[in-house]
Amino acid sequence: MTSLQKFAWYNLGIISLTGLAVAIGYLIVGSPALGFLGFLGFLGFGPLFFVKRGGKVIFDERDRLIQFRASTIAYSIFWVIFVMVCVFGTITIYGENGAVPVTVVRLSVFWALMLVYLVQSIAILVQYARDGRGDA
Amino acid sequence: MSGREQPPRPVIKNQIRRLRFNHGEMTQQVLAEKVGVTRQTIIALEGEKYLPSLELAFRLAMAFGVRIDDVFQYQAESEVP
């Protein structure tokens, strides 16, 4: 498994753990469960997978290309969803003369982060799975 | 008036697996270390799932001590049987 694959699996694990913790916690204790979004801080340890070890190649041109494609897909999907929510979601939920609560705006940063990392990780793993057959 | 004709898609084949076996049954890991990529990239190259950069193509040819067109062959789609 390449370092980029490990990075993607790690991020997927963090996002899944955070999502589960928030969902289950919200059912049990309500809005204080949003504190579990703090688990997203562990995403900061992801770059440790790319620390060089003993001259071994950690990240090559193909990994760079896969990461670039995955990032492009992730940010494109994020942008489409962001525009849809801003244009249609807000007016549907809050009405034409409504006001979006500050809490919602603040939380949307975390949801956006989760969405981008989730899509990026899946895109990375799908590309490796598609190209990796024929291991010898 | 003719319809929009697309230029034939090129097909790039490579002989990396054969050259590897001809060079003392070199493993994918050894070749990867020689050219500075990961073993997974060598697997993708041999499976023709990835097209290398020009620099990597030259490094592969140099690793085998052959010319670049001994490693990679270009065929326009119309020439593919």
Query: What average pLDDT do the residues of chain B reach?
Result: 87
| Rg of chain B computed from alpha carbons, rounded to a whole number of angstroms | 15 Å
| SSE-based structural type of chain B | alpha+beta
Report the major sheet of chain A.
none
Q: Roughly how much helix do the residues of chain A carry, as a percent range?
A: 55-70%
Our measurement of the CA-to-CA distance between the termini of chain B, rounded to an integer number of angstroms, reads 29 Å
Number of helices of chain B: 5
Order of helices and strands of chain A: HHH
The spatial strand order of the largest sheet of chain B comes to 1-2
The end-to-end span of chain A amounts to 14 Å
Shape of chain A: globular
| Count of alpha/pi helices of chain A | 3
Notes on the protein architecture:
The complex is a heterodimer of chains A (136) and B (81). Chain A has 136 residues and is mainly α. In chain A, 67% of the residues lie in helices and 0% in strands. Chain A is built from three helices and no strands. The radius of gyration of chain A is 18 Å and the shape is globular. Chain B is of the alpha+beta class and 81 residues long. In chain B, 47% of the residues lie in helices and 12% in strands. Chain B contains five helices and two strands, in the order βαααααβ. Chain B has a two-stranded antiparallel sheet. The longest helix of chain B is centred in the last third of the chain and has 11 residues. The radius of gyration of chain B is 15 Å and the shape is elongated. Chain B starts with 9 loop residues before the first strand and ends in a 5-residue tail after the last strand.
